[in-house]
Design goal:
The complex is a heterodimer of chains A (about 350) and B (about 200). Chain A has one domain. Chain A has about 350 residues and is an all-alpha fold. Chain B is extended and about 85 Å long. Chain B has about 200 residues and is an all-alpha fold. Chain B has eight helices and no strands. In chain B, helix 2 packs antiparallel against helix 3.
Chain lengths: ~350, ~200
């Protein structure tokens, strides 16, 4: 009995943590969709959805119900296996970075020795992260780059020329902007000296700048622009430019499969917001909070987690704001901008950071 | 127990994907299978305490190179109905190569089992670490890294040379000389329209 409990305990804890994180992320994503429609409505002088529940608060659930109940139409000449695989790949790759989100600082004040069989022995802290991976930044970048397959395969397997064009465009766009994104992150990694997301936050707080947005402003701007392209958002929403391509790669997808793509896109938005917050804006750090509450106590950790979520929501609002403001790029402009402007600027930023790091460490 | 279960899961997945890679006639299915192999291997790297190698494997092989391969296959849009019989006479050769590889694998098993058991050095802390890999690359293995860098630069320059349109500069030169001959001004608009 004792042996089985000891074997299963870490798995149960991990499962619980993953479920909790999934719940938080899903609720925020659902309400991002609602907020997007509301804010776009205000920007365009409309009211936005207001029928389901007070202020339309139940609208996400109504949408979900509708997605589930709609008829699922599979095109006759599609490549069936790949057609089913594509949305699964898209949503899995969108959700996997959740493992390394640094939701908050570790709680150290709780004594775990009350647990039976000595399960709490040797555990000095409860981290607010599901998995502490040494290479968190690379993990997120890698998983996001695998997410391209979802879109490319969806476009190919639908047997529709608009879908294929959308899929091709989107893979070309994602490959191009991934480079700029990776290069803009290098500066932060060099300053922090670690690839672990929580480690970057701690290094950031202890650095003379407090927030890496100050020494890495160029990197931040490049990252933000690349993030818009990576998530296929306006002004880079070429893969689903409806005036040219109907709906791009998901033209032939309906019902729940479309909902999976839709969800994956919004979770990706959440992921890049987490990355931007963590790398450039100090993650869960709020100046002065450690003077009011003891570091490592429960209220400190929970308040920090709340601040983290608030910072992410600010980013999500920024996304919606930009969508309501800017028109779409033309495809050749997009490619030229990515390769001939963004990438050189990001590489220049790397060289600049090398100089900064050299003088800081002297 | 959990570790070995996970190992057999990922190893089995890698082998299954590898078999499907060879078996499928459709190049896109083969490409997807190869991505499956790469990701399963990355999972095994993580279990061997080499997270950096795993992340780089996914980032570069699965995320960049294979995406380009899939891209090309999608652009070519090959027919999947035609059976390919061109390489039939190579089946024997392939079989021989397979037997040789299998023999090598079993020889490695045999050699490892016969080798005297050494005390396990605690290398898990440092070997797969990003810091130790970086330090090794810029001290002990600096020359290979530099050679690889030069090779990659050559590849980049070569691909740029191949992709470049050769007519373009000549066209510009002709137009420039025309401009000089005729005097600037009235010709410039015409030249813009033509380009």
């Amino acid at each position: 009995m004792e042996a089985i409990v000891k074997q299963l305990f870490p798995l149960v804890v991990l499962f619980g943590a993953a479920t909790a994180a999934f719940g938080v992320v899903m609720i925020i994503v659902a309400y991002t969709v609602l907020a997007e429609r509301k804010v776009l409505g205000w920007i365009q002088g409309r009211i936005g959805p207001n029928r389901v529940g007070p202020w339309g608060m139940m609208q996400p659930f109504a949408d979900l119900l509708k997605f589930i109940l709609k008829e699922d139409i599979v095109p006759d000449k599609s490549t069936k296996f790949v057609y089913f695989l594509a949305p699964i790949v898209a949503v899995t790759c969108a959700l996997m970075p959740m493992i390394v989100y640094p939701f908050g600082p570790a709680i150290t004040s709780i004594d775990l020795s009350f647990l039976p069989y000595g399960l709490g022995n040797g555990i000095r802290q409860i981290p607010l992260t599901i998995g502490q991976i040494d290479v968190g930044v690379l993990f997120v970048l890698g998983i996001t780059s695998v997410g391209v397959y979802g879109i490319a395969l969806a476009g190919w397997s639908s047997n529709n020329k608009y879908s294929l064009m959308g899929g091709l465009r989107s893979s070309a766009q994602l490959i191009s902007y991934e480079l700029a994104m990776g290069a803009s992150v290098i500066g932060v990694v060099m300053l922090a000296g670690t690839l672990d997301l929580n480690g970057i936050i701690y290094a950031q707080i202890q650095s003379p700048f407090r927030l890496y947005i100050i020494p890495q402003f160029i990197g931040f701007v490049v990252f933000l622009i690349a993030a818009f392209a990576e998530t296929n958002r306006v002004p880079f929403d070429l893969p689903e430019a409806e005036t040219e391509l109907v709906a791009g790669f998901h033209t032939e997808y309906s019902a729940l499969k479309f909902a999976l793509f839709f969800m994956g896109e919004y979770v990706n938005m959440f992921t890049v917001s987490v990355m931007a917050t963590t790398l450039f804006l100090g993650g869960w750090y709020f100046p002065g909070l450690s003077y009011i509450f003891e570091v490592g106590s429960v209220p400190y950790a929970l308040l920090s987690a709340g601040i983290f979520i608030l910072k992410i929501c600010a980013f999500l609002f920024f996304y919606i704001w930009v969508r309501g403001t800017l028109p779409r790029f033309r495809f050749d402009q997009l490619m030229n901008f990515g390769w001939k402007f963004l990438l050189p600027v990001a590489l220049g930023n790397v060289i600049l950071t090398i100089v900064i790091v050299y003088f800081l460490n002297r | 127990m959990i570790t070995s279960a996970l190992f057999f899961l990922f190893a089995g997945l890698a082998i299954a994907c590898a078999i499907s890679l060879v078996y499928h006639k459709n190049p896109l299915y083969s490409a997807i299978s190869l991505v499956g192999v790469l990701i399963s291997l990355a999972c095994i790297y993580v279990m061997l305490a080499a997270p950096f190698i795993a992340a780089v494997q996914i980032l570069i092989y699965a995320g960049a190179i294979m995406v380009l391969v899939v891209f090309v296959i999608m652009l070519l849009n090959l027919d999947d109905d035609k059976p390919i019989n061109r390489l039939r006479h190579l089946y024997v050769f392939g079989g021989i190569m397979g037997v040789v590889l299998l023999a090598q694998t079993f020889f490695i098993f045999y050699a490892v089992n016969r080798a005297p058991k050494q005390a396990v050095v605690d290398t898990t802390e440092t070997v797969g670490n990003t810091l130790s890999i970086g330090a090794g690359m810029y001290t002990e293995y600096l020359l290979p890294v530099e050679i690889v860098g030069i090779l990659l630069l050559m590849a980049v320059v070569g691909s740029v040379m191949l992709a470049r349109r050769l007519e373009q500069p000549q066209l510009e030169l002709v137009v420039d000389s025309e401009l000089e001959k005729r005097g600037e001004g009235e010709l410039e608009d015409e030249y813009r329209i033509r380009l």
